[in-house]
Known about the structure:
There is one protein chain. By secondary structure, the protein is α/β, with parallel strands linked by helices. It has a single domain, classed as P-loop containing nucleotide triphosphate hydrolases (Rossmann fold, 3-Layer(aba) Sandwich), CATH 3.40.50. It is built from 6 helices and 9 strands, in the order E-E-E-H-E-E-H-E-H-H-H-E-H-E-E. The protein has a 5-stranded parallel beta sheet, with helices on both faces. It has a two-stranded antiparallel ribbon with strand order 1-2. The protein is globular.
Amino acid sequence: MDLSKSFVGVPLFAGVSFALDRGVLAVTGANGTGKTTLLKILAGLLRPSSGAVRVKRDGRELSREERRSNVGWSGPDLAFYPELTAEENLAFLRRAAGFGSRPDDLRERLAAVGLDRAGGPVEHFSTGMRQRLRIAFSFLLDPGVVLLDEPMAGLDGDGRAAVRRLVASAAGRGPVVVAATDLEDLPPADTVLELD
């Protein structure tokens, strides 16, 4: 990997390398150290200044295009269509990714994050409810790799417990990378990568 990222010549981070088959990697560090940028690079949303990201599934390296449906991501800047309900947003996003959706499946995914009783458009959701929807989105395509940026932000105790359950389940199947400024805001991790 040996990832580095610079903006206007100033290095944000350099020499970041790790391999993860399964389990939870926690990325932590002070504000501005590049946690969000690193996760966006891993998700394929940003290009590194140098280095490469390799994602394998069933022993085969995935192309950049294949990574889109095999990597689940959520972060604070993930937005939804405000006039749609949570279920309508997830249905639309599955169709946009080329997958069908079944209402009962979507309702189960919303129930897993505590949004099974959330009706009405997303524009009326609280901060915590929007965060729960972001978490549901990251697992929407049953990805082999899950990337969560500040997953506990704005969540109450029940929301945090839901994130811990989903992360533990996903970590048994593949790699989960979570980022936060404070380790207390992260699910239990197998490995910690501190950016400074």
